[in-house]
Amino acid sequence: MTEIRKLRQNQEEPATEAGKFLAKRGHVVMKQFRGIGKVPCLYGNELVFSTLVFAIAQGTRGQRTFGLKIEHESDDGTEESCLVDFEELKELLLAIKHLLGIAKQHASERNDYTEFEYVTRDSLKVGFYQDTNGKQQVFFDVSPGGAMTFLGFDGLREIFEVIKKGREYLIELGAGVDETVSR
H-type helices in 66-140, by residue range? Predict the structure, then answer.
């Protein structure tokens, strides 16, 4: 019997605190979601953003974690999503802000095909590419190996605002307090 257990695949440890809460067993878990925005993408799909609060009660002790869920439906109808911990939201906002600056700086250049990207702990990938003709295109990937979505830079600015709004709401609920990120 113990030999059979050795054959079972080891499951990867979740990369985010929110993911670790979802993996807990033998506890009472509260999951609270609030839709905070949708951003249309090119080619007909959209990104959907929700805040999340997870709480676990075990005896007299409790824990909470906060974050953001980002999801979209791929062309084949598969729903894909990722989680971003509250602690990572500020870094994600700063990365988006930096990507917007890089895009503006490189807009008039003609070079080899180039990609600029930022990847979160749960493998959310946001960035843009610039082709040899100078054309730039934003990409957003919520699931490794899944369907990548494409947006214009106005869409990326919209994503920034939705994430910022979600982060501010989580602070109101008691998530870690630090300085706000502005445009």
Answer: 86-106
